Amino acid sequence: MMTNAPLALQTPPTSIAMRPVRATDTDHLRVNCWPNRSFLSIYNLITRTVRNVSERRGLGLVVVGADDAPLAYGQYTIWPTCAEISDLVVAEPLRGQGVGTALIQTLIKHAQAQRATAFEIGVAIDNPRAAALYRRLGFEDSHTVMMSLERGMEKIQFLRLETQ
């Protein structure tokens, strides 16, 4: 790949172990990544993602430690105009070590194999660290929306990356 390609489109490192998410990952994801979310909300997210895989509409990946326990999660869903990367989370001790970057790069590679040519990712306005990561990877501000999330209504900034 060309070195001047956006970082999001570059080859992810092979040193970060990933695999598709499984429903049995719910407990570990709750403990390691989403301690404030309910078991049921995480389980529902994962089962929707697994269903999207079976319908060739998406993929969910976990970054795993030596014991195969999930330490990070991300997914994409294929929509008519793009692949939306969402629910990206990295366990606190791994933040700032390239795990989120590798996860996004890997998700994009898989989505490109499903013919996606544009990618969107949303970030809460009160999460400037994640927004900075997405911009560093090559995503550009696209639009904002108000969304009802677990904490109530939140302003979400969507960023977009086009490959064509």
The major sheet is characterized as:
7 strands, mixed
Oligomeric state of this protein: single chain
Q: Could you name the CATH class of the domain at 7-117?
A: Alpha Beta
Q: In percent, how helical is the residue content? A: 25-40%
Number of helices: 4
Taken in chain order, the helices and strands follow as EHHEEEHEHEE
- What share of residues are in beta strands? 25-35%
**Outline:** globular
Instruction: List segments where confidence is low: pLDDT < 50 over at least 5 consecutive residues.
Output: none
Identify the CATH architecture of the domain at 7-117. Answer: 3-Layer(aba) Sandwich
Report what the structure shows.
With 164 residues, the chain is an alpha+beta fold. It has a domain at 7-117: Aminopeptidase (3-Layer(aba) Sandwich). 29% of the residues lie in helices and 34% in strands. The protein contains 4 helices and 7 strands, in the order βααβββαβαββ. It has helices spanning 26-32, 39-54, 99-113, 128-137, and strands spanning 18-20, 58-64, 70-78, 83-90, 118-124, 140-149, 152-162. α3 (99-113) links the parallel β4 (83-90) and β5 (118-124). α1 crosses α2. The longest helix has 16 residues, at 39-54. The protein is globular. The mean pLDDT is 93.
Please sum up the structure shown.
It is built from four helices and seven strands, in the order βααβββαβαββ. The chain has helices at 26-32, 39-54, 99-113, 128-137; strands spanning 18-20, 58-64, 70-78, 83-90, 118-124, 140-149, 152-162.
